Structure formats: C-alpha cells, structure tokens
Amino acid sequence: MNHFISPADVTDLNQLVTSGIVTKRNPFADQELGKNKTIGLLFFNSSLRTRLSTQKAAQNLGMNVIILNVSQDSWGLEMEEGEPGNPIIMNGAKAEHVKEAAAVIGQYCDVIGVRSFAKLQDRDKDYSELVFEQFRKYAGVPIVNLESATRHPLQSLADCITIEEFKVKARPKVVLTWLPHFKALPQAVANSFCEWMGGMDVELVVTHPVGYDLAPEFLGSAEVIYDQEKALEGADFVYGKNWSSYTNYGQVLVNDPAWMMTEEKMDRTDNGKFMHCLPVRRNVKVTDGVLDGPRSLVIEQAANREWAAQAVLKEILLGIQ
Ligand code: CP
C-alpha cells in the first residue's frame, strides 16, 4: 500500500480486516518494522480517537510520532494553485503554501497523516478533496486519511473489524440510520461507511429523512428506506450518525427528535448491536439507555481504531522498507 486515502488504495479489504484482528491479539509483533521511521499527524480539526489511536498504533510499530495542530501551532496553509495568467496572490491570512509545507514535512516524516474536514459551503470544492490531492502531490511520502471532506476510512476499517468480530450470522443486516442534530455535520463518516460496507458480505440498508440522500457514488447498491422503524426490523447492527444534506449542501433541513435512537426502536431489531463513531451527544442523537445498555458497541468500536490504524501503517511500512 502506498497511500491510504480511499478504498481504491486498498488491494484486499478482507485481508486488511483480518490483519487488524490479528494485530489486536499480538500488538507488538512488528515493533522493528517502524524503527527509525517517523509519522507526522497533521490536524486541521479537533480529534480524540483518531489522534490517540493512530499515535498508539504507530508507537506499537516502533515509529516516532510528531503531531501538529495546523490551525493553531503552525502557519495557515494556502491550498489553491491559481491558473496560468491568474496566480494565487498570498496577501491574505494564510502565510504558507501547501506546495512548500507538504514538501518540507515530507523531509522530516516517512508517512504523513492528515485530518481536514468538509467546510460545508461549496459541495464541488469539498468533494474535490483539494487538501488531500495537494498533500499527495507535494509531500513525496505516503499520505494517510485521518478524515477528509468526504471520507473517514480509518473509522470505516475499525467498523468493519467490529462487525466481523460481533456478527452472529454469515451475512448480517446492517442499518445506517440518520440521527437528529442541530448543527450541520459532514457526510464523511456515512459516505465512508457505505463505501466500505459495499466490500463486506452484509445486507446494507440506509434510513434518513427525505432530503438527506447520500451521494450516489458512496451509497452504491445499499437499499434506502425512509421509514426508520421499518428499516430497523431484523437488523443485526444499527449504525447511528448525523449528516447534513448533500443535495441542499451543508444544510440542516430537519432536526426531528423522533429520529433519535431509543431502546424501544432497538427492540425492533434482531437483538441488534448499536454502533456510533463518537463523539455523540447523549439524548440528542441516542438515549442513555441505548449507550449504557448491553447492545452498545461504541467503546469496542473505538478500541478497534487502534488496530485499524496499525493494520494500515503496517502495510504502508512494508511498502517503504
Ligand atoms: N470517530 C472519530 O474520528 O473520533 P475523533 O473525531 O475524536 O477523532
């Protein structure tokens, strides 16, 4: 594996899931692999799980870790290139161009992880993934997606590992349900979850209010059911997430508390497990009863972020030895 930006960078999804599960059983088996190698983790946005799990995974592999909160600790980065005859004139707030910054960080680091969320103002701009394209172009080293405008593949890999570990049927029914939230959130986790479930042997159903349809290229062949209670029937896994509208880009069209996940709704499933990437707002998106009850997998799921990151970094390190 060279980069880990989207599933297109992964040769064998099932092998990567297995690698994560094997790594969990013996986390320090590859401590020599990352010796004298450095990973730089660049955060344009906040993080708890991604930051700690990726740092821990890199350390398990013997790597050195440098963390930079880009917006707070370093110069603001200009991402735009300009055009022939219409160059970018950097007389605004951003003091450094990604062309130099990425190339310089690539001199210090053997691998670079980047987190940069959607700004939710211009759909074409967000979906062009400019930040990742620029780092891929100019860093000269492998790039790992720590959540981009449209994807969160380390989260999705951890989700795949969790479903593989907890499934009790060969082909479980997995329901991705929209949950209410007052603030506009990106589609990245939902997009990525659909994309990765497309590579797993599951029946994927997506349920959300009208107006919240995901981009078709991410939804794939998943069935969409606008009636949440009907969608939940017989589910083995319920994956909760809020996202803002893709069609009315970045807007909160409805914030109906009737979409919150409750124990009564979980009773419609086939003893289904509840998953959420976290952070989650209690009693806004999901009740205490679900989160604190025996059907919640949110802590196990977060724990698997470490093994997902380690499986990915191992593949990358094998490619740069
Ligand atoms: N799920 C997830 O990415 O968590 P953080 O935003 O805390 O990293």
TrEMBL record:
<dbReference type="InterPro" id="IPR006132">
    <property type="entry name" value="Asp/Orn_carbamoyltranf_P-bd"/>
</dbReference>
<keyword id="KW-0808">Transferase</keyword>
<dbReference type="GO" id="GO:0004585">
    <property type="term" value="F:ornithine carbamoyltransferase activity"/>
</dbReference>
<keyword id="KW-0028">Amino-acid biosynthesis</keyword>
<dbReference type="GO" id="GO:0016597">
    <property type="term" value="F:amino acid binding"/>
</dbReference>
<dbReference type="GO" id="GO:0042450">
    <property type="term" value="P:L-arginine biosynthetic process via ornithine"/>
</dbReference>
<feature type="binding site">
    <location>
        <position position="241"/>
    </location>
    <ligand>
        <name>N(2)-succinyl-L-ornithine</name>
    </ligand>
</feature>
<comment type="function">
    <text>Catalyzes the transfer of the carbamoyl group from carbamoyl phosphate to the delta-amino group of N(2)-succinyl-L-ornithine to produce N(2)-succinyl-L-citrulline. Is essential for arginine biosynthesis.</text>
</comment>
<dbReference type="InterPro" id="IPR006131">
    <property type="entry name" value="Asp_carbamoyltransf_Asp/Orn-bd"/>
</dbReference>
<comment type="subunit">
    <text>Homotrimer.</text>
</comment>
<feature type="binding site" description="in other chain">
    <location>
        <begin position="152"/>
        <end position="155"/>
    </location>
    <ligand>
        <name>carbamoyl phosphate</name>
    </ligand>
</feature>
<feature type="binding site" description="in other chain">
    <location>
        <position position="115"/>
    </location>
    <ligand>
        <name>carbamoyl phosphate</name>
    </ligand>
</feature>
<feature type="binding site" description="in other chain">
    <location>
        <begin position="47"/>
        <end position="50"/>
    </location>
    <ligand>
        <name>carbamoyl phosphate</name>
    </ligand>
</feature>
<keyword id="KW-0055">Arginine biosynthesis</keyword>
<dbReference type="Pfam" id="PF02729">
    <property type="entry name" value="OTCace_N"/>
</dbReference>
<dbReference type="InterPro" id="IPR006130">
    <property type="entry name" value="Asp/Orn_carbamoylTrfase"/>
</dbReference>
<comment type="similarity">
    <text>Belongs to the aspartate/ornithine carbamoyltransferase superfamily. SOTCase family.</text>
</comment>
<dbReference type="InterPro" id="IPR043696">
    <property type="entry name" value="ArgF'-like"/>
</dbReference>
<feature type="binding site">
    <location>
        <position position="147"/>
    </location>
    <ligand>
        <name>N(2)-succinyl-L-ornithine</name>
    </ligand>
</feature>
<feature type="binding site">
    <location>
        <position position="75"/>
    </location>
    <ligand>
        <name>carbamoyl phosphate</name>
    </ligand>
</feature>
<feature type="binding site">
    <location>
        <position position="281"/>
    </location>
    <ligand>
        <name>N(2)-succinyl-L-ornithine</name>
    </ligand>
</feature>
<dbReference type="GO" id="GO:0019240">
    <property type="term" value="P:citrulline biosynthetic process"/>
</dbReference>
<protein>
    <recommendedName>
        <fullName>N-succinylornithine carbamoyltransferase</fullName>
        <ecNumber>2.1.3.11</ecNumber>
    </recommendedName>
</protein>
<feature type="binding site" description="in other chain">
    <location>
        <position position="305"/>
    </location>
    <ligand>
        <name>carbamoyl phosphate</name>
    </ligand>
</feature>
<feature type="domain" description="Aspartate/ornithine carbamoyltransferase Asp/Orn-binding">
    <location>
        <begin position="189"/>
        <end position="314"/>
    </location>
</feature>
<feature type="domain" description="Aspartate/ornithine carbamoyltransferase carbamoyl-P binding">
    <location>
        <begin position="3"/>
        <end position="165"/>
    </location>
</feature>
<comment type="pathway">
    <text>Amino-acid biosynthesis; L-arginine biosynthesis.</text>
</comment>
<feature type="binding site">
    <location>
        <position position="181"/>
    </location>
    <ligand>
        <name>N(2)-succinyl-L-ornithine</name>
    </ligand>
</feature>
<feature type="binding site" description="in other chain">
    <location>
        <begin position="277"/>
        <end position="278"/>
    </location>
    <ligand>
        <name>carbamoyl phosphate</name>
    </ligand>
</feature>
<dbReference type="Pfam" id="PF00185">
    <property type="entry name" value="OTCace"/>
</dbReference>
<dbReference type="InterPro" id="IPR036901">
    <property type="entry name" value="Asp/Orn_carbamoylTrfase_sf"/>
</dbReference>
